[in-house]
């Protein structure tokens, strides 16, 4: 690793993004009738894609792995594999797809493709989360899962995607 500036930069930025996603999980608001809390994790997952491009899956994957291994990194300080089996597991796994989508979009110079990548990344998280919510919640239909796991989060995630796009533009 000595003398390899690119690898050192990747490692330090990965650590930075893991920390930001973890901090984003602390900012969570639970609404009584929704099984999933509002968090800022999405903002930092999308930002990971913009900052690390094709390597964005590394910090997101490590964040998930560290949470599974017991570090209290998930929303409300939760940890362990049980979190992934609960109603929020699909959203957390969706982080990987979102980071990849945004990372691929940010490999391009076009602001339109980058903006579309941010939007698609946010939608990836919501779709994965809603699908898993339908599977993990007995008695909840697919339509019901989308009504409680997709629709209430759409406006907030659009704002987080816009914020990530603006922040990423300032970082370049």
In short:
The protein has helices at 5-26, 41-52, 57-68, 81-85, 89-105, 111-136, 142-149, 151-171, and strands at 28-29, 38-39. It is mainly α.
Model description:
- This protein has 172 residues and is mostly helical.
- The protein has a single domain (5-171), classed as Orthogonal Bundle (Arp2/3 complex 21 kDa subunit ARPC3), CATH 1.10.1760.
- The chain has helices at residues 5-26, 41-52, 57-68, 81-85, 89-105, 111-136, 142-149, 151-171, and strands spanning 28-29, 38-39.
- The protein has a two-stranded antiparallel ribbon with strand order 1-2.
- Helix 1 packs antiparallel against helix 2 (41-52) and helix 5 (89-105) packs antiparallel against helix 6.
- The longest helix has 26 residues, at 111-136.
- The model has no long low-confidence stretch (mean pLDDT 94).
